Amino acid sequence: MNLADYLSELLGMHDEVSVPGLGYFVRERVNGYYNDGEARFYPPHHRVKFVPELREDDIFTQYVADKKNISLASSKYFAEKFIAKLRDDSSRGNYIFAELGQFSMLGDQLVFKPYDKIAADPAFYGYEPVNVYKKNEPSFGAPVKSYFAEPEPQPQPQPVTEHTPVSPATVYEPEPVQEEYYEEEHRRGVSLWAKLLIGLVIIGLIAFGVYQLFPGKVHAFYNKIIGKQDTVVTVKHVKAKDTVRMAPAEDTLTKTASIIPSERWEIIYERSYRTFPSAMAAVRYLKSKGLDAKVVPDDPGKFIKVSVGTFNTNKEADSAMRVFVQERKISSKSYIQSLPNQK
Predict the structure, then answer these.
(1) Does residue 92 belong to any structural domain of this protein?
(2) Is the model's pLDDT at 307 over the cut of 90?
(3) How far apart are CA 61 and CA 146, in angstroms?
(4) Is 13 inside a domain boundary?
């Protein structure tokens, strides 16, 4: 895979990614907008901005090393070769940089021209532009339909003709309506019973609710109706003489209270994040390296921070951080921060 493709994957997890020896790339959000000339709404999207400023950051090279299963030194070597080839190809024409944009050379300076948006952006995947058509304006050349329907043709009156006289013996029998009458009466009867049943259910629910709220009053009211009196039992208290004066006994069981430290020590990952999805992407990446990564929810700072370990003392946190740095799971830019425990 081209190293530019790895950079494109990292920009889906981080807002900024630095490439040693080249500069850093920033993922910018472009809000949705309306193009009056095209009569079309465009959804929000992301595009990439390149800043030719060098930063000391191993996120990109470490990600490539993990993907290719090579050492960090080999990953940095491949990155140097990749940048040298990019500069050489850009000096002879446009260099297509994955699906993010194109590099070209203006004098001795690299110039990056980003594409309008990141292709297959996971943040806004599936949203398409929406066409908006004005009133009385055809869409895609189709004829505009009138808002008023054409009047339907009225039937023409038929000429009056002489009718044959009806014989007195001719008898006209009316259509049977008795069956429809019975069906209508049946529906009315069913509707009446259904309403009665619903009313009984509602009354039962109200009675149950009153009983739950005032059980004593309901029992008293029921006893009053049936004439039942509450049985009163008189309890006679007998005061016993003190024969032995008891001394206050000491507790024989020792209650062990759990002691919660007033503060904890977090190993904070070297980067902070502006959005929660970016922080969670970093958590998944760090967990894939065997770290107990999580978002720090109670940090009062402006940005979201990610912790790779929680400890009760600063000494324990410092020892663990030295191991993580030695195993190349994090860089030495990570730091230890003390935070109060929630009681």
Answers:
(1) yes
(2) yes
(3) 64
(4) yes
Does residue 84 register a pLDDT over 80? yes
Which region holds residue 69: left if phi is over 0, alpha if psi is between -120 and 50, else beta? left
Tens-place pLDDT, residues 230-265: 554 444 544 544 444 444 544 443 444 456 678 899
The number of angstroms, rounded, from the C-alpha of 177 to the middle of its chain's C-alpha atoms is 62
pLDDT in tens, 4-29: 888 788 877 888 888 888 888 888 78
Q: Which of 131, 146, 169 is the last residue of a domain?
A: 131
For the chain, percent helix, then strand, then coil, each to nearest 5? 35, 20, 45
Structure pTM? 0.35
Specify if 274 maps to a domain: yes
Task: Assign residue 335 the CATH number of its domain.
Answer: 3.30.70.1070
> Among residues 2, 1, 49, which one has the least CA distance to residue 29?
49
CA dist 37 to 128, 139, 141, 150, 208, Å? Answer: 18, 15, 17, 34, 66
The CA angle 293-298-301, to the nearest 5 degrees, is 95
The number of folded domains in the chain is 2
- The residue out of 110, 131, 152 marking a domain boundary is 131
Domain that holds residue 269: 263-340
Q: What's the farthest any 2 CA atoms get from each other in the chain?
A: 129
Kindly indicate the confidence band of residue 99, based on its pLDDT and cuts at 50, 70 and 90. confident
Q: How far apart are CA 41 and CA 11, in angstroms?
A: 26
| Spatial separation of the C-alpha atoms in residues 239 and 258, rounded to whole Å | 43
Do the domain assignments include residue 139?
Answer: no
